[in-house]
Amino acid sequence: MTYEEIRALDEQYVLPTYGRFPVAIDHGKGATLYDPAGRAYIDFASGIGVNSVGYADPRWIAAVTEQAGKLAHVSNLFYTEPCARLAEKLCTRTGMAAAFFANSGAESNEGVIKLARKYSFDKYGEGRGTILTLRHSFHGRTVTTLAATGQDVFHNYFFPFTEGFRHVEAPTLDEVQAVAGHDVCAVLVELIQGEGGVHPLDEVFVRELEQLCAKRDWLLLVDEVQTGIGRTGSLFAFQQYGIRPHAVSFAKGIAGGLPMGGFLVREDCREVLGAGTHATTFGGNPICAAAALAVEEILDDAALEAVREKGTYLKQAIEGIGSPLVSEVRGRGLMLGVVLKEGVSHKKLAARLIGSGLLCLTAGSDVLRLLPPLTITIEELDSGLAILRRVLSDIEQEEEA
Fold first, then answer.
1. What are the C-alpha distances in Å from 27 to residues 30, 35, 49, 297, 358?
2. Which of the listed residues 191, 252, 366, 375 has the most CB atoms within 10 Å of its CB?
3. Model confidence over 279-289: pLDDT tens digits?
4. What is the 3-state secondary structure (H, E, C) of 200-232?
């Protein structure tokens, strides 16, 4: 089908819940995508951080194909090898004790919210179920995770939202304590706020928060839906912050393109959710688990070191462009935010870049968000940087004219 045919069919039969760019993607290889007419696009978006090992990786294809020929689904009433092996791999690489597998980031965050509230109920009874989250956070699009999200723009239409959340205005210990009370059971944070504008949390604040949680017997919950599975240069970002959260959620890149999520818990939380207290039909299904095992194999320690190196390379290259349209580049690994000067529209810039062959994302009100596949090559990075440099230069010249 042509782009025009695909777009017409989509607009006739798919709910218009997405503001799509005028591009259809047909196939990809490495970190390069192609539309139905064969035009190439360098991918600095990776399906919003999902396609962690790029496109058409032969190891990923082999794992999915082999498992599809054996067993796709059997339900969690029975044991399967891929699910058990994946849990072992994740726990071994992180020092966590046990895993629960789900299907999406929002569902994973719902799970850690339930974990925290049951942990508190089991020890203290009712009246201690409030969870603190940060302003500018994003935790999902279900009614509960929207309530947890600290951005007013998402707090509309779907009333009433789930109760039991308070938002901390700034990531400081004083601000946390200002809204804390005897009804609090947990704090839920992103170590790098993605949708909110690619804001890394200060390491000192995070360690102080961990100490406060231990003192107050709050669970420290870390949302690593976007930062997890190698995105920042370690398997999880919390490993770079030197903390051990009670639970950490993940999704996006875990299965390299297939829908999967979940969360890991520490030893002191592994018995909180027993049989019948939490479940999902498709979580940990053999095909997604096999795909995730392939991702784990691909993203070994050497690959994670390469993510850190490529992240530094990309950040320094963008800073080296010296564009007056850019005020800052922030982030870790291959999760970078290009902060634009006041008056520069991040949405219009993203559209210009996509039209020129570079796929990218936006975040916050002024940030161009870059989430390339973790296996992107230096050559592909350079191709994307050349497009970025050219488009920024064109805009500068237009403004001067």
1. 10, 7, 17, 23, 15
2. 252
3. 999 999 999 99
4. ECCHHHHHHHHHHHHHHCCEEEEECCCCCCCCC
Residues in the chain: 401
Q: What is the pLDDT of residue 47?
A: 98
CB atoms within 10 A of CB 62: 12
Q: What are the residues facing 131 on neighbouring strands?
A: 165, 186
pLDDT of residue 324: 97
DSSP string, 109-175: HHHHHHHHHHHHHHHH-SS--EEEEETT----SSHHHHHH---GGGSSSSPSPPS-EEEESSSSHHH
pLDDT at 264: 99
Q: Which residues of 70-100 are buried (b: 16+ CB within 10 A; e: fewer)?
A: eeeeeebeeebebbeebbebbbebbebebbb
Q: What is the per-residue pLDDT for 148?
A: 98
Q: What is the pLDDT of residue 399?
A: 87
Give dist(CA 81, CA 60) in Å, integer: 17
Would you say 100 and 263 are in contact if contact means Cβ atoms under 8 Å apart?
A: yes
Label residue 9 left, alpha or beta by phi (over 0 means left) and psi (-120 to 50 means alpha).
alpha
Alpha-carbon distance 128 to 190, whole Å?
A: 22
Region for 331 from its dihedrals, namely left if φ exceeds 0, alpha if ψ lies in -120 to 50, beta otherwise = left
Return the pLDDT at 49: 98
Beta-bridge partners for 262: 101, 250
pLDDT score for 296: 98
* Element housing 101 (H / E): strand 98-102
Instruction: Please report, to the nearest 10 degrees, the dihedral formed by the alpha carbons of residues 297, 306, 330, 56 taken in order.
Output: -50
How high is the pLDDT of residue 377?
98
Task: Give me the pLDDT at residue 278, please.
Answer: 98
Place of tokens 């219009």: 348
Helix (H/G/I), strand (E/B), else coil: 319: helix
Residue ranges in the chain modelled with pLDDT below 50? none
